[in-house]
Amino acid sequence: MHEHTPGLRERKKRRQYQVISDTAITLFLAKGFDRVSVAEIAAAAEVSKPTLFRYFPAKEDLALHRFADHEDESARVVAGRPGGTGPLQALLGHLLDGLVRRDPVTGLSDHPQVLAFHRLLYGTPSLVARMAGYQQRSEAALAAALGGGIEGALGAGQVIAVLRVLALENWRRVAAGESADDVYPDAVAAAELAFGRLRTGLPDEPGEAQ
């Protein structure tokens, strides 16, 4: 009978985590990140401030939990890839699947709430700075999955940079008014180009750099 208790406790904790973060994001989108206090969020979510800080150590984390959930995603894709599949092949396949699903992490989502959230994120310096920490942890996890050492670190640095550049370009176009469906073919082509470059390296022919 007691064996189910930890699972139930974990689910309850997860629900609380979700409620607090969703409440915070709703307030941030309505008023702006800097105009909402932690006390206001705690009151709206019906928890105490100490409880809120147990779940989210900093105010910025309330907005960024969606990125925290993806922190070790690339590492998991590499570690869990089928036999005979290379790391880059697995990562590209995962990205292409995300583009098909219009996963917000790929930047290719024109859902109004996602667009509003991304505007909040990219328009708030403290959130941009905090997100850099998530990306560093994501890079470190991927480096370990790629075997560690300088080889793993170099590979992870390049992959994480490519994913960031691709997502920003998709988001920039969608935020400017293009539909996700219109951007999709270019997003796929850019992903394939980027991972092709990761496989073969940057061109270094005389006269190519302008």
From TrEMBL:
Coiled coil: none annotated. SUPFAM superfamilies: Homeodomain-like (SSF46689). Keywords: DNA-binding, Transcription, Transcription regulation. InterPro entries: DNA-bd_HTH_TetR-type_CS, Homeodomain-like_sf, HTH-type_TetR-like_transc_reg, HTH_TetR. GO terms for molecular function: DNA-binding transcription factor activity; transcription cis-regulatory region binding. Residues 14-74 form the HTH tetR-type domain. It comes from the Bacteria. The keyword Transcription applies. Residues 37-56 bind DNA. The keyword DNA-binding applies. This is TetR family transcriptional regulator. It comes from Streptomyces liangshanensis.
